[in-house]
User: Fold these one by one.
Assistant:
Number 1:
Amino acid sequence: MSRLPIGFEERLNKLWSQEIVSSFIDSFKERLATIRINTLKTSKEEEIQLLSANGFILKSVPWYEDAFVVTNKTKREITDSPSHQAGKIYIQSLASMVPPLALEPLPGDKVLDLTAAPGSKTSQIAALMNNQGELLANDNSRERFFRLKKNLEHLGVANSQLNLSLRLEHGARIGREFPNYFDKVLLDAPCSAEARFIENNQKSFGFWKEKKLSEIAKRQRSLIVAALNALKPGGTMVYSTCTISPEENELQLDWLLRKFGGNVNVEAIPSKLLCLPRLPNILFWKEKELNSAIKESFRLLPTSEVEGFFIARITKTGAIPSSSADEE
């Protein structure tokens, strides 16, 4: 029996060299736990001292001062710790921390997290904003919405200086309700989650079928249009996925650039993140050459500490026609 979905490794071999594919295959294993210190409830210096006193061995992350690899504790042990129970630390994959850093939210910004549950990135955005400004967190799954609400309360998101709104809506409705409103929008899109497969763990990939990718991509496009509609001209949107397929990543940007032309630009991610290991972008797929601007997007190379991820930073320069969501 294959240790990964049938046909999946074959797709990888069509995308990259054998050396890169081998690196990918090696990454489909359980990783060490990683945490983010929640600066809404504690200082980094104070929490490092406390964690060290409680026996945590931490490895710093060079591109994000609030992130650490925990080299000697399981996720269960971290969850049971006083620091986690007090909301002072939060278990979050390193790759998941990259999109909010690429978005660069600032205190006082109006920010939308369009598909926010369970709240990892939302709470990180609030911390980067120092709980100052306006933050709308939306998700269309009732079960996931209440997990989002619970996590944000636990982590101390919102105070008198942050206008926090939680919404249980389809993303398209948010786009229609808040046209040209937000300074920053994060769309961490629902996806096939290929980068989170764990070899020989059927539960992590049993749902995967190549023919489903186009269906997922179509749903993502409606969210992309909603996110862009909600973004004000001159604002910044980050589109991200925890998947590998070009259909959900580069092809989405190619579609976006074809449909909206001079009204959107794909920008390089902030220079502070360029130290992260990077994969070559896909600029040619299934006999189709893609827009060269896509090379500005960023594919994280998976390692023993960081899972694969796709991040694109997009600026809006003009009005976005909402009727284009379902067009090919």
Number 2:
Amino acid sequence: MLSFRRVHKSYGGNEVVQGIDLELEPGECYGLLGPNGAGKTTTLRLALGLTDPDAGEIRLLGEPIPRRAREARLRLGVVPQVDNLDPDFTVAENLLVYGRYFGIKHAKIQARIPRLLEFAGLESRAESRIQALSGGMKRRLSLARALVNDPDLIFLDEPTTGLDPQARHLIWQRLKQLVAQGKTILLTTHFMDEAERLCDRLGVMDRGRLVCTGTPAELISEHVEPQVLEVYGDGARGWGRSDGERLCQRCEHAGETVFCYTRDVEPALATLEGREDVRYLHRRANLEDVFLKLTGRDLRD
């Protein structure tokens, strides 16, 4: 569905994509994760043929990119990070006009609109102006619009950013339906729980490189210890330097919190019982732990 072979891209001497190899299989949801500046947006632009690579080979839906990007995009759906719905049109008119860009006949688009509105939960909003929609409604309409040409592959760039939990869960449900129907999805997100729930496979990018790939379970098992202690409070740092670092495989200090990773949590837990200067949370390792280990805890601008 999409393949990158040793793809490079530089801007002003700064190599923002450094020899990426990437492959999407039909019918899977693939998550592309990474901090700001990791190269995710450039990777999407390269895949769409909007940016030319400096080296390497890209194929999208069997077509060489960028040479036949236009032909490939006819079978593609895109949900951009920032909504670009047309405020001059109603909800239904946004779908109708967008469908015309693909050369779809008017009657065929009109026949598809009711199903798309039902999929997005916007049946009662067909004649509403875009200004009257909530943020969640706009994101659902952007998803419905991306399906107007019945695409084989869908790109979603941070589709649930800024949404409340109810809207986020509804979009998750719709994306799972698309995969069940045989659609292929490439998803970028900063929500690790979203990636863990939706994605069959993941790739973590950092500083232009794809640093690891695998299923969520594989990445967690391979890169982090299974048990995590989050210890915070006035005595957390002191506990971390003494008991935490002595009893756990790895400890990281972030603000007032000490994150300790271990295979056997009981000895460390025993040292915390009865202490009034700390509080703690014991949990299993998750995808966010993998992400922070591989890309660091420092802010990226």
Number 3:
Amino acid sequence: MKSTKFVTSEYYHIFNRGVEKRQIFSDDTDTQRFLKSIAVFNTVNAVGSIYEYSFESKKRKTIKSKKLVEIICYCLNNNHYHLLLRQSINGGLGEFIRRLGIGYTSYFNIRNKRSGVLFQGRTKSAHIDSNEYLLHLSAYINLNHKIHPFGDRISKSSWEEYVEEGKTRDSTRICSKQIVLRQFKNCKEYKAFALEALDNIRQKKTMYGEMKKLLLD
């Protein structure tokens, strides 16, 4: 984990990709497992594994456990992921990312009959130091799968939670999205804001790509 001192109640962009840029999500089974890991490991109570957790699920439903972090939004792509998180307790964010990395790597290695590390080095992080940054980052993460060349082929994001409220099942909602949505009149207004922000991001990526090519030429 990157040696960042996370501050409770502050927001952070957390992201990482597969070692050697390898694929870390190959199908819906993988993305659903990662999302389940997010939900299961986000507790101050010790969790051995999702397998062990499943045997105690009924008991745990009756116990309200404090969360390590708040999930604001997420995007899982072919070879990388993005999370926007708020630390809920001291040390919570680091512990959450540690559990998530170990748990998903163990699952992935067993499923694919491999061994060794899955993610490229320490998890990366960036502190969100303004509300404007928070809003634009939410758009970037929610629509991140549309920025990359593989598009919607292998991806899962919290976009539907934000713009199609009522259409997603309660069991699939894991985001605390009101910090973002309460700043807009409704979901439709947020959708328009996010799509406009996406256009700006695409333009900047195109400009950067063209400049890089000129320098290389």
